[in-house]
Amino acid sequence: MTGTVYKSTGSWYYVKSDDGHFYNCRIKGKFRIKGIKSTNPVAVGDRVEFKLEKSQEGEEEIGVISEIKPRDNYIIRRSVNLSKQTHIIASNIDQAFLLITLNNPPTFTTFIDRFLVTAEAYRIKAILLFNKIDTYNEDELSEVKYLAAMYRQIGYQCIGISAKTGKNVEQVRELMKGKTSMISGHSGTGKSTLVNVIEPSLDLKTTKISEQHRQGQHTTTFAEMFDLEFGARIIDTPGIKGFGVVDIEKEELGDYFPEFFALKQHCKFHNCLHLDEPKCAVKDALDAGKIPWSRYKSYLQILKGEEDQHYRIDNYEQE
Ligand SMILES: Nc1nc2c(ncn2[C@@H]2O[C@H](COP(=O)(O)OP(=O)(O)OP(=O)(O)O)[C@@H](O)[C@H]2O)c(=O)[nH]1
Ligand SMILES: [Zn+2]
């Protein structure tokens, strides 16, 4: 049978078969995936092949996973104990929404840009949701409009919403249909409020799934996938407000700023870092006002944060 992993506890996997039934599954033998040193071979979102076997008590049918299908993408974090190892949080994510509020709490452009760079590096489509627009005065609304226009120009979809009044939430729901989404954002930006307004029944489902999954209860929080009634899936990653970790070579960082990448071919040096090199198309565009300073500032900040030719984004927060 083929199915999708909805929950993982490290030893048990909760898998939904393509014909819509849930099974508790284990893995058989050792899984090795090329290039990944991971503490967990199977992650939430994975497409897997499994066979049913009778459990020892002979009552329940247990699935045995024999194969993981190639992943479109995956997000990781470093394992807590083994520094060289990583933990795959989730895979096969179609899109990630970032909830942004101007104040209460403030979301700075450097945080937005780090999120976008990480999404580009993971090849996950990113959508920016400016939440709490019901609370903004005229000045604040024009700031939201300015930011949205700036990010739209780069190619990112931006929507002003209110999770509280429901404004433009229907648009978000439409975007989610038929896809697997993640919802990120600082604490207090309205992630739970948005999920509740999108699908009020989700709370009930949450309880039901964890009840069915008693054997696998574990103290650590793991990612979990949920079906929404209108044909969408969301991946909840407790304790992770952003995207986890990604290592990027200094030379490739500019490639994850789409507007820099588009100009790169016009830089004199093919490996231009857009710092002090002569005839740099990115710096020229910056001087001509065609690239926003805030983006360039974020770029420098990420670049300067690098260690040993690498920089590391780590927006993993323990609750
Ligand atoms: N006025 C207004 N308040 C909102 C809106 N969205 C969320 N809030 C409020 O903001 C506060 C935080 O919302 P949550 O949904 O708990 O935020 P969260 O991102 O899930 O926060 P964490 O669980 O800490 O990560 C709550 O008091 C919400 O009622 C909105 O669109 N407008
Ligand atoms: Zn350059």
UniProtKB/TrEMBL annotation:
Residues holding Zn(2+): 267, 272, 274, 280
Note accompanying the cofactor annotation: Binds 1 zinc ion per subunit.
Stored PROSITE patterns: ENGC_GTPASE (PS50936), G_CP (PS51721)
InterPro entries recorded: G_CP_dom, NA-bd_OB-fold, P-loop_NTPase, Ribosome_biogen_GTPase_RsgA, RsgA_GTPase_dom, RsgA_N
Keywords for this protein: Cytoplasm, GTP-binding, Hydrolase, Metal-binding, Nucleotide-binding, Ribosome biogenesis, RNA-binding, rRNA-binding, Zinc
Domain EngC GTPase: 91-241
Signal peptide: none
Keyword Endoplasmic reticulum: no
Cofactor: Zn(2+)
Binding positions (GTP): 131-134, 185-193
A Pfam short name: RsgA_N
Subunit structure of this chain's protein: Monomer. Associates with 30S ribosomal subunit, binds 16S rRNA.
Annotated family: Belongs to the TRAFAC class YlqF/YawG GTPase family. RsgA subfamily.
Name this protein carries in UniProt: Small ribosomal subunit biogenesis GTPase RsgA
